[in-house]
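Feature request disguised as a bug report, sorry. It would help if multi-protein outputs had a clear separator. Right now it looks like this:
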Amino acid sequence: MSSAFTLHTDGGSRGNPGPAGAGIVLTDPTGIITCEGGRYLGEVTNNVAEYEALIWGLESAASHGVQRLTVKADSELVVKQMKGLYRVKHPGLKPLYERARAAAAKIGSVEYVHVRRELNKEADDLANRAMDAQATVGDAVWPACDGGQGTLFG
């Protein structure tokens, strides 16, 4: 079995809800960046932004044919929900959780790891740059880094 790719994801909002962004960094098993990007999300909650980043990152990994993936995120809620340790109670998060599970199912093996914010700086920076620019930044194309078209809202 090959080594795992690593996906760092982060979502944030300035206000809750407020102007929000998502950031992703996908690296190959040697640590080389496969793709990275930030996307402005409009006005949503922090938890919605975290899930949108996760979905984007999972879709990007799947588009690159990744079979083993370690997801590193600083949202304890999202990580514990994706691991099945917390139930998804909020009705607004249930569809996002289902979309994340569907995206993860396209990858052979996905492990979720909660990391401290300072260990997720690159994804956080991309989310903030996207919020500042109110645009997509980096080389990742929404919804996936392979040049896919469309939107995650739909």
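(second protein starts here, but nothing in the output says so)
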Amino acid sequence: MTVFFIVALFLLSIIHGVVGWRIIPALGLSDPLRLFVWGIIPLAIVLPMIPIAFRSRGIENDLIDWFSWAGYISLGFFVLTFFAILAKDTMFAVIGLGQKVAGLLGYPHHEPIDPSRREFIQKVTGIGILAITGTATAKGVYNAIQLPIIIKKDIPIHGLDQGMDGFTIAQISDFHIGPTVKGGYVRQVVEQVNRLEPDIIALTGDLVDGSVKYLAKEVAPIKDLSARIGKYFTTGNHEYYSGVDAWLDEVDRLGFTNLVDSHEVISNGRGSFTLGGVTDYRSRQIKPDHHSDPERAFSGAPKDLPKILLAHQPASIFAANKVGVDLQLSGHTHGGQFWPFVYAVKMANPYTAGLHDHDGTWIYVNRGTGYWGPPLRIGIPSEITLLKLRSATELKK
């Protein structure tokens, strides 16, 4: 944890320092006001770390949750501003390089910009960046607290009994119930899911950020989730940061079946398939007896039935494909949540969002039913997924 705080503070210092260095001088503030604004920078650096530090020591309360709101929104604003500055500086560097190249090619050379005009441009640009990123932050917060959209997908499954054609799975993932996602939001999501009347519900990890003791009342509404056949849960990485054994017990108490490198045969009386679940892709690093092994999950399963796997991280797809899984349901990525993290998420995961065919194994990556960290979603809404299994034979007709 000490290493985490050192690295986090280092990165936050760079982000906030660059924003201060590139924006504050350009605003033309009076000396007292400029000193005041510079004084906000170190506060903004440590603000997101304060609630994390308390929670890492088992201290959870409403005051710390309010610090989380303030710190995470501040972090989102500074991150957006930092990348806006990089984009602006890159654009001006390209323009400057283009002018130099044009000069070498004999095109007329532009006179240097007058210092007063340069100062005016810098001030307008600085104010413009703050206006854009401030508006984007406000819009991102608004989007994040809205209820998730419902995405419906038909997925052909080879070998699926015709009697199972039209079988529905409601997938929810990455609630991150904790400092800023509370029970009121959870209750509304439960109502959305129940209106879909699914055959089964799959909750693919990262349900919580915090202890059972503090969050039990916020998580309690998931008990009211209703499915014709059953409700199934598999762990995400954040369960391991929050006390995985206690959360598995609590989720079980709330009516879910935990698939911990295990499987169940799902039947509607007219056909069947095997539903497996693996623990988080990196679970063994924290809890050695959790293996995240699709082969182990389907050990002893009927060989003639299609296999569907619940696996929090998309990275499980490689092992899933080797054991003949027909469909993997994942989350973890949040779809990137907001720019520019989309690019980092794409580099870190084989699939980021939506439905993909991985060498004959379908994988669907849910964009998250909640959000994590900064309560921002820009261009990437949270979602509930209703997956309808289709018999490949039926689809050919």
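Even a blank line would do. Unrelated, but nice: Residues 2-143 form one domain.
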